[in-house]
Amino acid sequence: MPRTVDRTARLSAIGDAVVALAVDSGFAAVTIRSVAERVGASTSVVTHYVGGRDEMLRVAVRREIEARREQAENAMANHRGARAVRALIDWAVLTADEATHRFWLALIVAAPTEPVLRAELDAFNAWWDARLRNMLREAGVTELEHAADLLNVVVDGLVVGAFDEGAPWPQARRRQVLATTWRALGIAG
Amino acid sequence: MPRTVDRTARLSAIGDAVVALAVDSGFAAVTIRSVAERVGASTSVVTHYVGGRDEMLRVAVRREIEARREQAENAMANHRGARAVRALIDWAVLTADEATHRFWLALIVAAPTEPVLRAELDAFNAWWDARLRNMLREAGVTELEHAADLLNVVVDGLVVGAFDEGAPWPQARRRQVLATTWRALGIAG
Known about the structure:
mainly alpha, about 190 residues, elongated, 9 helices, homodimer, about 80% helix, Tetracycline Repressor, domain 2
């Protein structure tokens, strides 16, 4: 990276490298060295901007999650209740691409041994759970905890399903699972 | 390992080490060296019994999967149709312990980059899918593909859910998700 590149651009390049490495090989492969190699800088340039590995993971993962959260908010915008629930879940399992799903899986798998990742995942889950419960309430669902549990299981299952079978599921198969889920919860369109 | 230990016992110790390392740290951490350290043998003793890393993974993962398959078959024994479906899924998400779930997640995550693991997972999935479809047919379910998809999503989602939240779900929460799933498929008890 040339010296004239500003701080934001450098942090952005470092963040992109962290995410790309995590998507390809998991967070164990994300080190100051591997990130420096990927952005074409020395390790001391990387540590100048992010301190150590934990701070690098925190900055990169928070930035990535914020971008995803903004996409999710946009998908829900102008909807309420059942429609908003379906828009959020559709975004998570139909709109988000395979790289995004690989990123989430990498995050979930690494969280037990990387407290920095656990904290970022917990913060996202707290936002997601509050949003989801609020919209389910608006939709007139009474068993909020059970409904949220079922939706979270279906989202996680559809994200993992692609990797279990070795190829992403066609949209039609995912939509079918979602359609059954909406009927089970009484919030079909 | 002492020289008098026979071949079966050595392969068994190597297999246990492979599974334990994969459960703790993922398959990237499973090497001839790390397995040799764990069983207290030299790397040349390990390669004497399993050849190279790929053969070691194949032998260990096949043995572990066979043991799980036998548990699943025992859970289904003496049941048919809807009862057999519920027994299989209950075994997968209620009876199997956290280490087993971590093993499956490690297998799914590593399969895209480790053809040996992909092949073992595919073989298990072929058995699982054939068994499940057969039992769903016996249970009078007509939309076999959709029903199997929903069940696979729920199983994967319940296995991953524990890691997403950072702690295993209590049995009651899992049972509730399963109860909704049985009703959605028309195969409740």
